[in-house]
């Protein structure tokens, strides 16, 4: 992979650095020619998304360094810039905020100190002095009445943050997200992680990145209200807005609990939206669609295999792409898929009987999985929508319509809501499979009576589609 501009390795190391020359105009009064920033990535593990994230962080540090060279007046810098500069100062020295909050002390010596009112052993501040010795120069400068530069403030803040509980806390709203993401295991370089992080960034852009203070709670609530108003104006549904707010509110509550900010975060009221009419594939179009799918070949067959699974299992491409070989049993008496990977909810973990296009799916699903895992969600949606249009002539159809159609088929063919919810993975504790059952081997699972009954229910759901392709459906003769 060709490395982006300013990114390179140093010497024989395979670790990547961001290196960029300072502007020529600064060289008259700044000794260094080149800014260097480790990206904490090896060449072998550098994906485009990881590189983009690391470069953005390095570029931000570069711009701040230039500003610090050009202007030493601390009043020219905001709270977020000071916080960023302190973080960078600590990073370069492999230090972290609060690392000297609790240091080992001899209890007997501590008791003697209390009695004599005299320090007899190293305290928290002494450990900070050892790693940031230039803090003494800042103190001397202050005692002489000299004005402190921005660099002096950074040094002082960094020194204090090592052992002062209040200073160890995040200083600005923007600094809260990284802690929350780490605690929840959110990979901010992944597609899903970026999507969640962008919601936080959208809210922060509306609320404003301010220094955390006594007035911050009102600022947070004003920002949440502004977020809702903006999304409503953009036509986003109430349910979607509430879902977007989940991680934003959770992050703020997590920060309040961890750092004892004593915030009581109230979720804003979100107007209820009028439910949109869900587009369902007509029965005549379903017949056209199934017939078209099983006749496709080449790369289009991968898309067709996905559509057949979406139609009869109410599955989404994101679920299909996570299927693994050991969770496929398409050649047995009761062909099935075991959906137990990462899903939105535990309710989505389920067994999906395959009664339509069994042989076609078995042949083309491996390639379909390769396609889903090598392209983007937008590409999936585009290809699926295109196939639906070519097969039916209806340009209103999208992949979600298959899920709506599954529900409509259940209702029109008199299938019990419990069976429908079990196959589709709709919520409800009384339906679906237990965690223990999902851990059975597929061979054992296929022998259970409940799975055999699900096949019967699935045949009933799709009875209007089975007759035209009777040669390629499953016949269940036992309970």
From TrEMBL:
One of its GO terms (molecular function) is DNA binding. This is Uncharacterized protein. One of its GO terms (biological process) is DNA integration. Gene3D superfamilies: Intergrase catalytic core. It comes from Aequoribacter fuscus. The lineage of its organism: Bacteria, Pseudomonadati, Pseudomonadota, Gammaproteobacteria, Cellvibrionales.
